[in-house]
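Readers of this paper often ask what the protein records in our data store actually look like. Such a record has a labelled line for the sequence and another for the backbone structure tokens. The tokens are whole numbers drawn from a learned vocabulary of local backbone shapes. We quote a single record here, exactly as it is kept in our systems:
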Amino acid sequence: MIRELLERLPNPRRLLQDRISVLVAIGVAFAVGMASVAAYVTSAVALYARTDDELVEIAAVTRTWVQRDIEGMGGINNDALRAVNANVVLLRSDNQSTYVPGSPAPFTPGATELAIARTQVGSSARTVKGTDGARYRLVAVPLDVDGSYYALVIGRPLAPTEDILRSLQIAILVFGFTGIVLATGFGWWIGRSAVRPLRDLSQAVAVITETDDLEPITVRGDDEIADLTRAFNTMLLSLESSRERQKRLIADAGHELRTPLTSMRTNIELLMADDRSGMLPPGARSEILADVAAQLGEFTTLVGDLVQLSREDRVEAAPEPIDFQDVVARAVERAKRRGPSLTFDVSLEPLYLVGEPDSLERAVTNLLDNAVKFSPDGGTVTVEMADGRLRIADQGPGIAEEDLPHVFDRFYRSDKARTTPGTGLGLSIVDHTVKAHGGAVAAGRAPEGGAEFVVSLPGRSAPWSSDEDTEETVVLRRDDL
């Protein structure tokens, strides 16, 4: 019923706080109405019951007097009737009525009272309208005098009782209306307080839409709306972080892509000019084509690395239970082909985890390629895995102390590395992949004198049994670049 009343409101787009106020007012009005009806009915029943009890007591006393002197109505006079505010009528079974001398009753007994006189069983109580237009409450009790059957009827005007009920009605209406007004105001205040955080959220969204300013909202209280505000602020921080990452990636990509594109354009222009004039010396054309091919390869690698780093999703390509030892072994075999003059000192222990084998293999390959790139001819690359840690070290020049904090930054290349081929994204991909698998990677100087990288991944040394849930062993998470 309340919902139907709300749907009938004239403005379906009214403010939420107004709807709360109306809902509170309707609820309070309904409650006050029910309570008022219950109070009025209870009071009326109690007052009528009390009147009936008093009239029955009067009838009991009067019946004793009348039985002693039925002709003189037990000596009852006007003073006695005024004292009890009642009228007395003696109704015989043949429907003959006898009144107190000098005090005719303003009402006439009916069939209900006549039935009491004839049956001499029980009693009756009812409300009638008197000859003077007033309402009376009649109580009839049986009376037997020397074999003659009567009904002693006691009547009392209901004006005092109705005055009390009327005053009660006025009080209920006044206090009920006042309560509804106060409840409406209180509901409006509650609605305004309740929707203030929602209004702030709405205004924040409007400001973000107009100004593109991701400013967090002040959190008020510790309720569900405060939780919603905190969640919204978390979303804003995530959007701000994503935007900054996007801006940085675009800026870095634009800077790094410009160099190979410019070089390729220059070489292509030389080839086109040579087609027209034959200006290049013998063998130069082949060198330029080889340079273009190398630049295309570098360009392809750079684009692939950028795509890899731009992935914001979870590592969900093909997560599966794997032995990380196998992944590292495959990467080592590939690195051996790229560094045929190097010695690889490999010592691997099993490490079982849930992960994406292709991305993990690429990360390990990047570390090994870095070691191969900077190792001298005849040098040794150490690959050790024990206790959930993978260590890769080389005998190259190592990493300068000032470069250690930045080796995993995108496009960062130390002064020593600028003359070597690469995009500056390999180590960033390693950091991205390892963190996505819940691990960590650290760089430092190896005891052998070169660079050292240590990868830690959550896993176990024993394989899973058939009844274990491997999906819950390692949780792959979003990388926060």
